[in-house]
From TrEMBL:
Domain PCI: 260-422
Name recorded for this polypeptide: COP9 signalosome complex subunit 2
Gene3D superfamilies, A to Z: 1.25.40.570
InterPro entries given in the database record: 26S_Proteasome/COP9_Components (IPR050871), COPS2_C (IPR058796), PCI_dom (IPR000717), WH_DNA-bd_sf (IPR036390)
Annotated keywords: Cytoplasm, Nucleus, Signalosome
Subcellular location(s) of the protein: Cytoplasm; Nucleus
Transmembrane feature ranges: none
Length: 469
């Protein structure tokens, strides 16, 4: 028994087995037995002789006097043969249109819904080879028309969401925008607040992915903010995983590493709950964002991420975190070189690796120059394994940010550091200023007493450094 028969058994409220045996006398009629035998004979030819199987399935439809289970199953198999094996999508579409007429009364609603979903899954999944987008769109259009006629609003909405996902995967953004518009319209008309909120988040998840892929960050942020306003919704965790992943990428684009890390963590947690393989990729993004914040907290210390610490796809990121926290820039560079497939093959990670290495090199540079008063830029460049111009740029940034005190001699290409005064030197300097101020006050008082002063108030400028020292 294959998946189609198992699905038929589960989808029907009237059957317990894959065969059409029942207690009714009609089920024992020789005509029904003949059709059943024809179906299984046709099915056995499907792989070896698809053309003969197709003829046999069509013969079953012709032989059945009234539309029933076996005719529906035959049309379902014929659609599959035409689309997946013979690669004739136009004919498969016509067979599918005929199958949809059976959903009104010939089979149970549950079984028909499962069958329609399965057909649309392989049609949109590319299992039939390259198919013209107009043919694909027609499959979904005839489905929606049949469901609207049957007043099956729930499955109609699901079909629209499937089509939207198909256009997203195929990067047909103009078609996707049209479907999203229709989905928003139908959702707005829903009276069930909980169902409306849940479906709205599904639409937003598609929309936010579209804007992320088209780099429309202004619209992406609008949709992201709108998702936070949705109430009374019980979304699938995968939907929230998608939304939070795109949110994290949005914050990364704005260099808000901490907020990106928060969203990536939420995305990972939701993907993990949904059992989605995307959790591994998002965990890498979480680790990346955490390192860019400069946080000393290891992202694998949490109970949610700890089980994945030894995952083969994650271990290179674990090693990278260790190298980053030890400020071992050369070790980090080696990890990136040796694990290109796990780290650098992802365009998103690759885009921010430059920021990560710059942050790591900056920390390494600060530690490196501490014992010196002057250093050649060429020496620093060799230590960091970068060009001299890049070292100069990093040093300028550090000087402007006040992280190091010094200057760059452009003639000799040398860094000269100003060493801070010791605490004792600062105290002697403050005492000297204090003595000078006292002498000034003394002169003012003497001058005033002798009638020669003019009320000098220089004492107000007495230094306070001595108290701080």
């Amino acid at each position: 028994m294959d998946d189609d028969d198992a699905e038929y058994m589960q989808g029907s409220d009237d059957e317990d087995y894959g065969f059409d045996y029942s207690d009714n006398d009609d089920a024992e009629d020789s005509g029904d037995v003949d059709i059943e035998n024809m179906y299984y004979v046709a099915k056995s030819k499907k792989d070896d002789n698809p053309e003969e199987a197709l003829k046999a399935f069509r013969a079953i439809v012709d032989k059945e006097e009234t539309k029933g289970d076996w005719g529906f199953k035959a049309l379902k198999q014929a659609t599959k043969v035409l689309f997946q094996i013979l690669h004739r999508p136009e004919e498969a579409l016509q067979t599918y249109i005929q199958l949809l007429t059976y959903t009104k009364s010939a089979v149970t609603r549950n079984y028909s819904e499962k069958s329609i979903n399965k057909i649309l899954d392989y049609v949109g999944g590319g299992k039939g080879g390259p198919v013209d987008v107009n043919i694909l769109e027609r499959f979904y259009q005839v489905t929606k028309e049949a469901l609207e006629e049957a007043k099956n609003d729930r499955l109609s909405a699901k079909t629209n969401l499937k089509l939207a996902k198909l256009w997203l995967d195929r990067k047909e953004y103009s078609r996707l925008a049209n479907i999203i518009r229709d989905l928003h319209k139908s959702t707005a008309e829903s009276e069930d607040q909980q169902s409306r909120g849940t479906q709205l988040l599904e639409i937003y998840a598609l929309e936010i992915q579209m804007y992320n892929e088209t780099k429309n960050f202004k619209k992406l942020k609008e949709i992201y903010n709108a998702t936070n306003e949705v109430r009374s919704a019980i979304p699938h965790p995968r939907i929230m995983g998608v939304i939070k992943e795109c949110g994290g990428k949005m914050w990364m684009g704005e260099r808000q590493w901490a907020r990106a890390g928060e969203d990536f963590f939420e995305s990972f947690r939701n993907y993990d709950e949904a059992g989605s393989a995307q959790r591994i990729q998002v965990l890498k993004y979480l680790v990346l964002a955490n390192m860019l914040t400069g946080s000393a907290v290891n992202p694998f210390d949490s109970q949610e991420t700890q089980p994945y610490k030894t995952d083969p796809q994650i271990t290179p990121m674990t090693s990278l975190v260790d190298a980053y926290q030890r400020r071992e820039v050369h070790a980090a560079e080696k990890i990136l070189r040796d694990n290109k497939a796990q780290i650098m093959d992802d365009p998103f990670i690759r885009y921010y690796i430059g920021d990560l290495l710059r942050s790591l090199r900056t920390q390494y540079l600060i530690d490196l120059i501490k014992p010196y008063t002057r250093l050649e830029l060429s020496f620093l460049a060799r230590q960091l394994n970068v060009e001299k111009s890049e070292v100069e740029e990093m040093l300028i940034d550090l000087i402007l940010e006040g992280k190091i005190a010094g200057r760059i001699d452009q003639v000799t290409m040398r860094l000269e550091l100003y060493k801070e005064q010791t605490l004792e030197q600062r105290r002697y300097s403050a005492l000297d200023k204090w003595t000078t101020a006292l002498e000034s006050i003394h002169s003012a008082i003497v001058g005033k007493a002798s009638g020669r002063g003019s009320g000098d108030t220089s004492f107000v400028n007495m230094p306070t450094e001595i108290f701080d020292a």
